[in-house]
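User: For my dataset I need records formatted as: sequence, then structure tokens, nothing else. Please produce one.
Assistant:
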Amino acid sequence: MIHEVDEVLKGLLSGGALAGSGIDVALDAPTRDWAARRNAPTINAYLYDIREDVNRRQRGHLPVLDEREVVVKHRQPPRWFRLSYLVTAWTKQPQDEHRLLSAVLATLIPRELIAPSELPGSLGALGMTIPMSVAGTQTESRSLAEIWSALGGELKPSLDLVITAPFPAYPEYDAGPPVTEGAAIRLRALDGTPPGTEERTHSTRQVAAGREARKAARRAKRLDGTP
């Protein structure tokens, strides 16, 4: 999941206001040694913190649908993790670095949500919209000054970028076959005579209507980004 978020982030930073600029995008730790080897203008996005967003944790199970939108399996809800990136610009002049950071802001600020169609691999297969925030209030326990100290570098203007992504939960459990008939009641007299005519409490039409209503609800959740 983390490497897929890296892929999405590199694509975002290479596009938008920076499209066609030829600026390199790196995920390396911006240490002194890395800075000394750099020989071209670069945007660096260093993943410095990973922790679960416990406010998004869910209980129960979710349906897994096949191509006919029939429930074939059940799985636990995904766990959501906050991936925090330290985004910096590296050039020879501070003014150029500030211009690059402005371009990064112009690219990322409108992108508060990333649609499932933009997500690769297992992340996209979940069909969930993931939130992204940039330059917000830092909630992690370590300050940016402490991070720079640990990296062995000097404090540098940076943007704190947080992408909250779902991590698939395993295993999956097989589901029973889909319901194709309504429920029925058989009656037997007290004297043991054979049962009479079946009385259905739900017709097949009602069952189908209920299934369609559940499909519509799931589609609405995917469109508004509800986990």
